[in-house]
Design brief:
Blueprint: E1 3-4, E2 9-15, E3 18-23, H1 29-46, E4 50-55, E5 59-64, H2 71-83, E6 86-87, E7 96-103, H3 111-118, H4 122-131, E8 134-139, E9 146-149, E10 164-167, E11 171-175, E12 178-181, E13 186-188, E14 191-195, E15 216-221, H5 224-229
Parallel strand pairs: 7-15
Antiparallel strand pairs: 1-6, 2-3, 3-5, 4-5, 7-14, 8-9, 8-15, 9-12, 10-13, 11-12, 11-14
Amino acid sequence: MHNKTHSQQKISIAGENSLIVYFGEAPSEAVASEVAATAAQLRATLGALLIDLVPSYASLLVIYDPFNTDHHAVRAAIRHALAIPVDSDSSQAGALVTLPVYYSSESGPDLQLLADNAGLSIEEVISIHQQSEYRVYAIGFAPGFAYLGELDPRIAAPRLATPRQKVPRGAVAIADRQTAVYPAESPGGWNLIGLCPELMFDPSVEPSMPVQVGDRVRFKAIDRESFLDMGGLL
């Protein structure tokens, strides 16, 4: 185990009662660790003074209660949090979540083309996708849409030239060096390689999402029967 200091950060005013912290330029596992560690420290030190914390790829939006604190105090708390070295031991780097996936041409309509373009078999693409442990870089454009990286470059693929009008709930997808699971039916331009039967967003339970920024994700292949038994829809 070893500690490291944060990358170069910038704190800016984002609104009447919010500040944003920028961590470097590009998403990476190290930056994701910094964002998650800073958010955890601010939750501990500011507590009820916070209205919300919104982590992203390489930034953290801090929204505070303007009736009980001000941006000077919050900025001081952020600086204090940033001064604490980040524990880079992977065992401390968020929860490890395993998501089941039914990989097939039936459940992943882009699987064959992606394999062909990569010069690999479908079986090799599936194997490579499962080998990596991904970091949750951000919760994205819809609740529960977790951006996961870094994807093995052998199976990286650009977004579709023409996005689909409908991507099914649970679709496991690839775009560039990232992978994700669509939490609900929506338009989308990512390459679809399978389906996950688990709900990525369920407002009726707490927590409403199985993953948070900073968590680690692994995918595990399941067969068609198991997928349907677990509530998956085809």
